[in-house]
Specification:
Layout lengths: L1 H12 L6 H4 L7 E2 L5 E3 L1 H8 L3 H9 L16 E2 H19 L7 H5 L1
Antiparallel strand pairs: 1-2, 2-3
Helix pairs in contact: 3-4
Length: 111
C-alpha cells in the first residue's frame, strides 16, 4: 500500500501541469487523498485548529505531527486525524508541564 500511495501522490501533486498549489490553495478545500482520507496543507490545518501556521510547524518539529507519506517536502500534507491528535498531544503536554491541575478547553474560554 505504501508504494501505491507514494506513486499516487507523486503523479497527482507533482505533475508539471498540476502543481500542488493548483489544487491545494491555502484556505481552499481539503485534498481528498488517493486512500479516501482528507489531507490538509499547513495553512489549512492552522485555520481548522485556530492556531498559526508556525504552531503546526512546531508540532511537527516536536514530533506530535508527521506529514503524510509521499507528500512534497516543501509543502507537506497532513492527515486530518493526525492534526487533531497532534493538537491533543500538544495540549496535554502543555498542561502537564505547566504545573497546573486546572484543565480548561478552548471552547470554555471562548464562551
Amino acid at each position: 500500500m505504501r508504494s501505491k500511495l507514494r506513486i499516487a501522490w507523486n503523479t497527482f501533486a507533482l505533475s508539471p501541469t498540476r502543481r500542488l498549489g493548483a489544487f491545494a490553495r491555502p484556505g481552499g478545500d481539503p485534498i481528498q487523498g488517493p486512500d479516501g482520507e482528507e489531507y490538509w496543507t499547513t495553512k489549512q490545518a492552522a485555520e481548522a485548529m485556530e492556531v498559526s501556521p508556525s504552531t503546526i510547524s512546531t508540532w511537527r518539529t516536536n514530533g506530535y505531527l508527521k506529514p503524510a507519506d509521499g507528500s512534497p517536502p516543501r509543502r507537506p500534507l497532513y492527515r486530518r486525524a493526525d492534526v487533531v491528535k497532534a493538537e491533543k498531544a500538544a495540549y496535554d503536554a502543555a498542561v502537564r508541564t505547566s504545573g497546573s491541575a486546572k484543565r480548561t478547553s478552548r471552547a470554555a474560554l471562548a464562551g
